[in-house]
Amino acid sequence: MSGQVIALSGGIGGAKLALGLDRVLAPGELTIIANTGDDFRHLGLHISPDIDTLLYTLAGLDDPVKGWGRRDETWTFTRALAELGGEAWFQLGDGDLAIHVERTRRLAAGETLSQVTEALRRRLGIGARIVPMSDEPVATRVHTDEGWLDFQHYFVRRRCEPRVVGLDFAGAGEARMAPEVAAAFADPALRAVILCPSNPYLSVDPILAVPGMRAALAGCAAPVIAVSPIIAGQAVKGPTAKMMAELGLEPSAETVARHYEGLIDAFVVDEADAGLAIAGMQIAATPTLMRSLADKQRLARFVLGLAARLA
Amino acid sequence: MSGQVIALSGGIGGAKLALGLDRVLAPGELTIIANTGDDFRHLGLHISPDIDTLLYTLAGLDDPVKGWGRRDETWTFTRALAELGGEAWFQLGDGDLAIHVERTRRLAAGETLSQVTEALRRRLGIGARIVPMSDEPVATRVHTDEGWLDFQHYFVRRRCEPRVVGLDFAGAGEARMAPEVAAAFADPALRAVILCPSNPYLSVDPILAVPGMRAALAGCAAPVIAVSPIIAGQAVKGPTAKMMAELGLEPSAETVARHYEGLIDAFVVDEADAGLAIAGMQIAATPTLMRSLADKQRLARFVLGLAARLA
After folding, report:
1. What tens digit of pLDDT does each residue of B121-173 get?
2. Which of B45, B84, B93 sits opposite A123 (nearest CB)?
3. pLDDT tens-digit profile of B80-94?
4. Distance between the two ends of chain B, CA-based, in angstroms?
5. Is A74 touching B (CB cutoff 8 A)?
6. What CATH number does the domain containing B223 carry?
7. How many domains does one find in chain A?
8. In chain B, residues 173-192 whose CB comes closer than 8 Å to chain A
9. How many C-beta neighbours within 10 Å does residue A67 have?
């Protein structure tokens, strides 16, 4: 079977399934809508962490050991910047810097974030389209027991240590879906919309906060399927479970499923959570931990198969 | 003896004598006026090659083998940028990038180039003040048989290969001396002004093109002494001799001395050029090739001794 597939993704966790989808789908079939709520300006550079993670992962440039950033990375810049008294809390790899400098230069020359991202993914030989949720700025801010923190300050500088009270996506109300996002949802060949196993609150909610996005998901004829980022009450990576507990939510696949209730047709959980049942929602269980490329491709095929059955 | 000393300097050649002067003078006695005609924006970054060479050289961060840039440098950024299709003809070392990013950030925040440079030299523990000739942009442009080229395009991209017909310092007419430049010339404790052995046409002339600079040299009570960058008809480094020939000038210490006629009280040549005599100009010969730090300090002491005798 063929047709178009949309995946909504944040960084690391989502990019794993995005890579699996990219490998099992034909070139041009996959459109990945990337969270840009984590985007920020640092040292005068426009940094798009989730777009970069997707680009590096799909181009095979990601660091499989560290789990973030580029492989074969060096750190001379950050060391030299610290020596000069510059702001060096955000570790910028020397190779990674290239994408920030090139993006910043192109944006300053008048290109949209969509155009820059499209040029980069083509240059890197990536088959999937990678599209920012919006070309306008949306900034995830974390309300903590230490007050409001910009996302990267919470995530990197404070290592997710402050207790989370709430979240806010500044600018989301005024943002418009990137043109390619609207086009992807309007495509009659659309056969599946997949919410990747990213943090629902930090990575998927900012995408859903862009006006029109929820309506696009609700209105599309293709099945909408989410994959749980929580396995047996644990997050595979990152602060999802900790943050859920702080927000007074039980860290479980069920909580995530209920978070997406009304928006998705089906929910994929790990075999460890196979017992889950929610009225009006198809639940499918399969191994969801993605270690190898084979794991990623297998899960991608599973989700696409589920979509085909639901169609 | 004590008192203030001003040195006019470009990059590599001038920085060698500047380092010698810095080491033999007491902290706070030396003000180096740096050429900024080579400054340019590249990839959205403000690059000041001669200021950086001075900072690296005086901080002991310079690469003694390569002769430019930083020691212990890595090149991951430039490789990654080429991979992304970015403009990678200007080799930016990973550590070197830090100074461009930090400078660009501070300038965008409203600091002057003088303020940024002062902060950097203090941070790097440099005793000498390093002052741009002007806080306003002056751009050296090279008129060649291929047309007008921006300096870095001529120097780096085209490796000084085009034949030079003329030079122009765009913006020099409107530029004002940086405040610390004027202050240094007005200091009653000024005991010497030294034109370092930099390229007279590419590195010293842009400084002299800033309105008021020639008058400041002519009007100051302290002796003005130039050191020849040409030894026995050869440039120690760089395109000086080639360019002189292309401009129809004999590449010789005498040609340089005559270029500075009326502006300097004395001219220091290498022993190889000891025979030189010019009416109305004191000529002093000494070994001027600076390989070791000892060479640099010895030449610095020689020039300062000459200034003391002329005072």
Report:
1. 999 999 999 999 999 999 999 999 999 999 888 988 888 899 999 999 999 99
2. B84
3. 999 999 988 888 999
4. 12
5. yes
6. 3.40.50.10680
7. 1
8. none
9. 12
